[in-house]
Amino acid sequence: MTTTIFFGSAKLGDITGEQIRRALARLGLGEPISYRRTPDGVAGQTLFVSASSGEYVLKGNPLYEGQFVEERFFANELSKRTNVPVPVPYRIDETDDIFGWSYAVMPRLPGRHINESSFRAERNREDEARIAELLAASLSDMHGWKAPCYGEYDPARGVVRPFESSYKTWLYERIRYWLEDAKTYSVIEKSDEEWVERVLADAEEAFDRMRAPTFVMGDFKPENVLVRRSANGWELSGAFDFTASYFGDGPADLPRMIVYYMDDGEEELARRFVASYYRRCEEKEAFAERLKVHMLHQRVLDWGCAKAIGRVDWDPALPFARWAERYTEAVAEWASLCMREA
């Protein structure tokens, strides 16, 4: 389901031109011209396909049953409810006779990823500031989609299925679960656990008072959005990959982009991103406490993943709490400043 975390991948394997031809023909998309793997494809699931009818992305070998139905639901609804460009129509072939698995084909959206090195070299400081504000505005637009309950989309039933417990309980248990899991790959001291519990306790009342379930993309990061310069300035030209989407607290979408900026030495852009989002968000109460917990959640996941696959790019001697606190304290400070200035 949406909120399950997949550290593994379901790669496509070897694909032939004949298979691409058959897939396009089945969906009425003309003849293939060329195809290639995407450089940052989600879990190795995607191909760029050029056809006589246009440019597409083929996504195959689903991570779980219903993945593509779920993504299509979110893409279709966002296309109707927001101004954010998403890949529609999202076509699905549920049969497996061509590739050995089901697949989806969607339009390839224009634009570039903000973390492309050649693209970054073309931008100045003013461009970066405008893009940070644009990303915040786009998130705010998506977060305008409200749901009747906190939960995730059930592709088998075609409904939003509520979390078994409260949203706060679901979120807190998730953080504790992945902190415990991280002990398999790293040292988590008692002091780390005590620090985590203090952060959670400080925000309990804030989450208890929440009453507005909001769409959460779940993976808002440079690899999943595209931007381009138009006659009217910078614009978001695409957002995609809704495998991790659910209905929760909107600011949960902020940490991945904040971490990207901070790790790139761009704390001012991270602060601008937070401030721009805060000005637009509807639920401002206890924004700092909530965002701090969401950052903790992201850093628990990032710590465990990096330790598990051996991609630690920070001082390995740092205990978890000291490493994560740099991020949680930064967002708490920026968010508190936003609240005071409002």
TrEMBL record:
GO molecular function: transferase activity
Segments forming domain Aminoglycoside phosphotransferase: 36-278
This protein's UniProt keywords: Transferase
PANTHER family for this protein: AMINOGLYCOSIDE PHOSPHOTRANSFERASE-RELATED-RELATED
Record protein name field: Phosphotransferase
